[in-house]
Amino acid sequence: MPGLLRGVARTAVVAGTATAVSNRVSRRQAGRWAQQDVAATEQYAPPPAAAPAPPVQGDDMSGKIAQLKELGQLKEQGILTEEEFAAQKSRLLAS
Questions:
Q1: In contact, 70 and 64? CB cutoff 8 Å
Q2: Quick one: how far is CA 67 from the chain centroid?
Q3: If DSSP codes are grouped into helix, strand and coil, which group holds residue 46?
Q4: Calpha distance 62→68 (Å, rounded)
Q5: What is the pLDDT of residues 30-76, one digit of tens each?
Q6: Residue 3 predicted with pLDDT over 70
């Protein structure tokens, strides 16, 4: 009987140790994958939004046209969204 009890106890210790090690390895691997995901999203993040167009001095129509063309180019390049473009355009035309 003591031999059987010793064998069961040894099996329980080995199984418990294996479970603990497996859980620790899983947590470490999950942490590494999370770091890789963060690094990948930072690497492929969209560029920051461009600064808004400076206000036009006076009633210079050619300056407004040039700024509207620049805003259009930024929108075509994907730097400005449709909403940002519309907001900047209305602000420029209102000045």
A1: no
A2: 31
A3: coil
A4: 10
A5: 888 888 777 666 666 566 666 666 654 555 778 888 888 888 888 88
A6: yes
